[in-house]
Specification:
There is one protein chain. This protein is α+β, with helices and mostly antiparallel strands. The protein is built from 5 helices and 5 strands. The chain has one domain. A 5-stranded antiparallel beta sheet has the order 1-2-3-4-5. It starts with 20 loop residues before the first helix and ends with a helix. The mean pLDDT is 87.
Length: 181
């Protein structure tokens, strides 16, 4: 009998070839920021809040929950424990327009990187997936994630947002120059 439990099925060196969502997004930031020459910046930031819509519980509902019996599912204590869910927001903004930003999407993934969840601004989601009204997309691998990100950045909705920010920033720069003269 072989003493190996995993029988060579575990790679202790790890798989460093997986391109994580944050790496792909950071590559896009570099490209976009280079093309837009600092007039508009794209950033990916850690995000600490929920990335999908949820129901807030009222104080009355919370208190009524305290009073009644609560079902405990033991399965909640099995499987993954702790929190290793990375969440990011992807934002367009201009240094000139201090009080404005356009949050393009939220992105979230677990320890393996994939599947990755994209929560896209609704108008952009409607353009990209014309047959569905779904703005929450789960993507299974890096190749599909890159293709979807390409579709987002090439959408007319995103191009319009970026152009609008450029126009507003340029107008503000002209006003600032006139005020300095």
């Amino acid at each position: 009998m072989d003493n190996s439990i995993f029988d060579g099925k575990i790679n202790l060196a790890g798989d460093y070839n997986i391109k994580f969502p944050i790496d792909i997004l950071n590559d896009y930031c570099k490209k976009v920021n280079s093309e837009l020459k600092g007039i508009v910046n794209l950033s990916v930031n850690e995000y600490q809040h929920p990335i999908v819509s949820y129901e807030k519980q009222s104080l009355a509902a919370t208190l009524s929950g305290i009073m009644g019996p609560t079902q405990v599912n033991i399965q909640d204590d099995l499987g993954e424990q702790g929190d290793y869910y990375q969440k990011y927001d992807v934002v367009f903004q201009s240094d000139v327009l201090k009080n404005y930003k356009f949050r393009l999407m939220f992105v979230g993934n677990g320890i393996a990187g994939y599947p990755v969840k994209i929560v896209l601004e609704k108008g952009i989601a409607q353009e990209i997936s014309k047959e569905s009204n779904n703005y929450i997309i789960d993507i299974e691998n890096a190749n599909d994630f890159e293709r979807y990100i390409d579709a987002i950045f090439n959408s007319s909705a995103v191009i319009k947002v970026v152009q609008d920010i450029i126009n507003a920033a340029k107008r503000k720069m002209i006003i600032m120059e006139e005020d300095n003269q």
